Amino acid sequence: MIYLILSVLSSTVIFVNFKLFDRFRINTLHAIVVNYITACVFGLLAYEGSTSVAEIFGKDWFPYTASLGVLFIVIFNLMAITTQRSGLSVVSVATKMSLVIPILFGLLYYKESLGMLKLIGIILALVAVYLASVKNRTGVRVDRRNLIYPLLVFLGSGVIDLSLKYLEDTHVAEDEVALFSSMIFGAAAVAGIALLSIRAIKGKFRFEWKNVLGGISLGIPNYFSVYFLVQALRSDILESSGIFTVNNVAVVMLSTLVGILLFRERLLPRNWAGIVLAIIAIFLVTLNGL
Predict the structure, then answer these.
(1) CA atoms within 13 A on the CB side of 125
(2) Could you say which DSSP state residue 95 is in?
(3) What are the tens digits of pLDDT across the range 211-238?
(4) How big, in percent rounded to 5, are the helix, strand and coil portions of the chain?
(5) Whole-angstrom distance, CA of residue 78 vs CA of residue 189
(6) Own/partner pairs for 84-87, CB < 8 Å, 24+ apart?
(7) Over the stretch 44-54, which tens digit does the pLDDT of each residue have?
(8) In the chain, how many H helices and how many E strands?
């Protein structure tokens, strides 16, 4: 359970970083790229074994981590487009609702159990995510012309979580979790540097130290959010469908509470209802796994 709790806490620190990015006007894309570099380096430092570039390239999981890294950058850009065209609430809902994909994967591919408590918990979790994520009175509204962007964010985010479960189960050795996590971020960093290089050629890049510092502060919790999630998936506390449900809904709930305490955010009644439902959902899913 400790790994799941640490993953939730790490993801919440990521939320705090993004809130501070707004306050200090940090360029998110630039910070994101530095964040991937930082997370990659941190993972290499945390890896206790010895390896070489040739050995890493020879790992059977390496091509998958390279693909995931590129997907990280693609999803980030889709999230940016979705935010511009449909608003932050749409991005938040699309990202968190994507937990449906790894849940279904666990139930169908791994034949995980689906008791009544777990089913009710998953349904309440989805409702809780929606209610807690939508911070405006009008709810989520998406123009049909822009519907493809949140759908792609939904699918991409779900595929990332699904892939983490599948790879850690079939390809990653017990002592390679740190190296595996590091290479995902390394591939994302390479893709991000390529993107920034293109922008620099077009004269759209300006270096600022605050973006570097912001990226470093984001990279450390980002690495641990993935590392601890993989470790939680390897534990026997809950099945993967339960892990993803509890992890996502707990992050939404805790991030909302942190927003109140640190940033004095004002919540709508629906947001409070989402927090209450999140607590009930976590209790039911956890109780089902005991």
Answers:
(1) 29
(2) H
(3) 999 999 999 999 999 999 999 998 878 8
(4) 80, 0, 20
(5) 17
(6) 85/143, 85/146, 85/149, 86/141, 86/142, 86/143, 86/146, 86/149, 86/150, 87/136, 87/140
(7) 998 888 888 88
(8) 12, 0
